[in-house]
Specification:
The chain has 263 residues and is α/β, with parallel strands linked by helices. The chain has 11 helices and 10 strands. The protein is 37% helix and 24% strand. The chain binds adenosine-5'-triphosphate and magnesium ion.
């Protein structure tokens, strides 16, 4: 672990029966990093977020955040320390308004009270670009707005590390571009980001590092084009034309994995 790492996984192992999610994984994220993670369906990407956020406990190994060991802490405690995550399948409180959802995130996730929580919710509303929907019940939102609300809820907890799980899937190109701008802005404010995404063209303009998760291990870690061109990464996405991926196809389109269960 480097001395200034914000997040460090040290020798983390996690299995679901015979499925290896993490095999002695060691991984660090610095305070200014935007790290992209790609990998085939079922590789364990979402589970990795679970290990970081505390939704999953590792079989062995240590998770450290901001200089302390958080392996034994529950998700609420980790959230209050500054680990904010979105979920691949957004589950907002449907009968509450967008603003109320953000307020709950600021209070329950961020541990903020009264005026501070309202300020955090208002800031998240602005940052996530859903100000016009502030008073709309969450169940009435379309896909883009639901994804933005998911991002807003994570931001309202005032994270130091933001975990984004496929927030670009199903969006149009201009919508993806808007999302990239939001992530760039968030990072410019000093928030580190780990972004799992099948839509690689969303990642390449903004990530400082790209890595590929497969078989419980990271394959390649570094400059995005170089990682995507690595033979071991190409092997993971067998048959993938990497130049097509870089030009704009999603890995879903470029691999034989087919459609995913996007809401
Ligand atoms: N709680 C659980 N119990 C048992 N198996 C699980 C559990 N959660 C996930 N898995 C299994 O672990 C594997 C990895 O799942 P995960 O959702 O982390 O993959 P992923 O890389 O996020 O996939 P996708 O790209 O489809 O989102 C899958 O085989 C999944 O069925
Ligand atoms: Mg997933």
């Amino acid at each position: 672990m480097t001395a200034d790492a914000l997040l460090a996984l040290e020798h983390v192992t996690k299995r679901f029966g015979r499925v290896v999610i993490a095999e002695d994984l060691s991984f660090t994220v610095g305070a200014g990093d935007v790290v992209g993670i790609v990998g085939p369906n079922g590789a364990g990407k979402t589970s990795l977020f679970g290990l970081i956020s505390g939704d999953l406990a590792p079989d062995s190994g240590t998770v450290r955040f901001a200089g302390r060991t958080v392996t034994g802490l529950d998700p609420a405690a980790r959230c209050r320390l500054g680990i904010g995550r979105t979920y691949q399948v957004p589950r907002p409180f449907g009968d509450m308004t967008v603003f109320e959802n953000l307020l709950v995130a600021a209070q329950q996730g961020g541990g903020l009270r009264r005026r501070a929580s309202y300020a955090a919710a208002a800031q998240a509303l602005e940052r996530a670009g859903i100000g016009a929907q502030a008073n709309v019940p969450a169940e009435r939102l379309g896909l883009l707005q639901r994804k933005r609300l998911e991002l807003g809820r994570a931001l309202a907890t005032q994270p130091r590390l933001l975990l984004l799980d496929e927030v670009a899937g199903g969006l149009t190109d201009p919508e993806v571009a808007q999302l990239v701008d939001v992530v760039r802005g968030v990072n410019a404010e000093g928030i580190a980001v780990i972004w799992i995404e099948h839509v690689v063209r969303a990642l390449t303009p903004v990530v400082t590092r790209l890595t590929c998760l497969a078989g419980g291990r990271f394959v390649g870690d570094g400059e995005p084009a170089a990682v995507l061109a690595e033979p071991a990464v190409r092997e993971v996405f067998l048959g993938t034309d990497v130049s097509a991926v870089l030009a704009g196809e999603s890995l879903d389109a470029a691999t034989a994995d087919g459609e995913r269960s996007e809401p």
